[in-house]
Specification:
Layout: H1 9-29, H2 35-42, H3 46-59, H4 66-74, H5 78-85, H6 91-101
C-alpha cells in the first residue's frame, strides 16, 4: 500500500480535482499543441476532456451542456480558440490519426 491508499475520499477528491485543474490550465496555456497531436500521442484531447466533464456532471444529475464544458476546458468559446490557435492538420498528423484510431 502507498500513502494515497490511506487518503479519505474527500482528500482524494480534492487532490484529483486540483490535478485536473492543473491539467486544464496547462492545456489552455499550450495553445501550440493541437488536439490531433494529443489524440495521436495520448488518445484524448481537449474535446474528450469536455465530454468527460459532461459525463461526470450527468452522473450527478447536473446538466452541463457540451459547449459550456468545452468553453471551460478551452478557456474561451471553442470558435474563438479555433480561429486563434487551430491549424490545418498535416498529412503526417492525419496518417498517424488514421493509424491509431482506424
Amino acid at each position: 500500500m502507498n500513502s494515497i491508499d490511506f487518503l479519505d475520499e474527500q482528500a482524494r477528491t480534492e487532490l484529483e480535482a486540483a490535478a485536473f485543474r492543473t491539467l486544464v490550465a496547462h492545456l489552455q496555456e499550450r495553445t501550440d499543441v493541437q488536439n490531433i497531436d494529443l489524440m495521436n500521442l495520448a488518445g484524448f484531447c481537449r474535446n474528450c476532456l469536455s465530454k468527460y466533464y459532461v459525463a461526470a456532471a450527468l452522473e450527478r444529475d447536473i446538466d452541463v451542456p457540451y459547449e459550456e464544458a468545452r468553453e471551460h476546458i478551452y478557456g474561451e468559446p471553442f470558435s474563438q480558440w479555433k480561429q486563434k490557435h487551430q491549424t490545418e492538420a498535416t498529412a503526417e498528423q492525419k496518417a498517424a490519426f488514421k493509424e491509431t484510431h482506424g
